[in-house]
Amino acid sequence: MLLAGCATYGRIDNQPLTSAAARQPGYGMSEAASAGRRDDITLVLAFSGGGSRAAALAYGVLLELRDTRIGANGDRRLLDEVDAISAVSGGSFTAAYYGLHGDDTFRDFESGFLRRDLTSDVLHRILSPRRWFTPEGRSDAASTLYDGTIFKGATFADLQRRNGPLIVINASDLEGGIRFAFLQEFFDLLCSDLRSYPLADAVAASSAVPVLFEPVVLQNNSGCTAPHLPQPAEDSPQLQQVVKGLRGYADKQQRHYVHLADGGLTDNLGLRAFQETIDLAGGLRPFLRKIGREPNGHVVVVSVDASGKAAEGLGLERRAPSMLRAVDIMSDVQLHRYNAATLEQMQDSLQRWAKDVSTPERKVQPRLVTVALRDVVDEAERERLSRISTNFDLEGGQVDALVAAGRALLRANPEFRGLLDALGGKPAN
Q: Are the C-beta atoms of residues 10 and 215 closer than 8 Å to each other?
């Protein structure tokens, strides 16, 4: 607790955007890869926060998509049709790892992350006396650990070279009160080059739970032309707030530094990245054209929600919860507080986008597929999974159960089954 109260000066790893770097394509929405994917489906995944619990549930969904075949001959995997993955906090580990390693994720991710006691590793580094008299903060220590053990020095340039689905890692700008995505479009506002930025730093920012970790700091550089930001309609107060926050980066004096914390503070489910981007682009059609696509038969969003019941039984205890459990409870309360409204808003947006781009000759079918622990059928299993901590130290049996739940929940979802029927696919065995 004493260490948590100490002031630190966060390490700054984002580099200024040079003229040479500005001439090269950055890692962002405009460079989203679409080669090799079917033209009749736009498929987006959204991974929520919730520590290793969220990471394991999301991993189970990836496995199910890998084993789900589509097409007349069953010659394609549904996983290969994913256009983008938006993630926050714990879910960002799974998204970033898959974006970096592709199919090798299914060989290494469990041993390299899910079955590793990362909580002890982080605490050991933070509490090491060798760190006490250095400028390294707790978030810096976590980022260094993630970099050395999970991401192996990878940057967004490495992610870009993979040519896989666009990975959108989301954090929260504490001063601006808005979602901050690690995409070049956001780094352009800071006159900064995302390609050289460490992937581990972005994941550390997305999972920097307040109190336990300090914010990750970026420098807001000057010397570049500010990109154009659209003016939202007056009946869109949420978008107006977003644009106002983004325009604030133009004040290089007052916003010389940007402090980023847990992405769940502003985007609990990882869904707002998709929604805000399309609405700011003017709708689904202009957004798809921006990334070289046209409106197609299906617009599908799979929301993976790992919120649980960390506060269950608290009312029976006189003793105050420990700091770690209190953080766990606050995380879950936060997830529950906004998830229902966010899902309802996404459902409305999908219907609106599909209506705008549908024609009499070709109707676009919107689908929101939800994979949530609250939908586990067996009551005892549902309670057990929901009470798993949001730390990064799962037991082996918990990993197995969460991965299996992710697979089973996706396979049983009615919207998902309807999608497979439309695509001529069949679920995994």
A: yes
- The SS3 of residue 277 is helix
Q: E-assigned strands of 263-364?
A: 298-305
CB 208 within 8 A of CB 216: yes
Identify which of 258, 244, 153 has the alpha carbon closest to the alpha carbon of residue 208.
Answer: 258
Q: What's the residue count for the chain?
A: 429
CA distance 215 to 117: 23
Count CB atoms within 10 A of the CB of residue 322: 9
Q: Could you report the average pLDDT of every consecutive run of 10 residues in the chain (429 residues)?
A: 53 88 80 69 93 96 96 86 94 97 97 91 80 78 93 95 91 94 95 96 94 92 87 81 93 94 90 90 84 83 86 64 66 66 92 91 93 95 90 92 98 96 83
Q: Which two tokens stand for residue 65?
A: 């998509």
In angstroms, the CA 185 to CA 166 distance is 13
Phi, psi dihedral angles at 66 (to 5 degrees) = -60, -40
Question: How far apart are the C-alpha atoms of 12 and 197, rounded to whole Å?
Answer: 10
- Whether the pTM exceeds 0.85: the reply is yes
Query: Are the beta carbons of 151 and 200 closer than 8 angstroms?
Result: yes
Q: Which helix (H) or strand (E) holds 180?
A: strand 178-181
Any bridge partners for residue 301, and if so which?
44, 368
213 SS3 class: coil
Question: What is the DSSP secondary structure assignment for residue 150, as one 8-state letter?
Answer: I
Q: Is residue 307 within 8 Å of 370, Cβ to Cβ?
A: no
Phi first, then psi, for residue 76 (nearest 5°) are: -125, 145
Task: State phi, psi for 42 to the nearest 5 degrees.
Answer: -110, 120
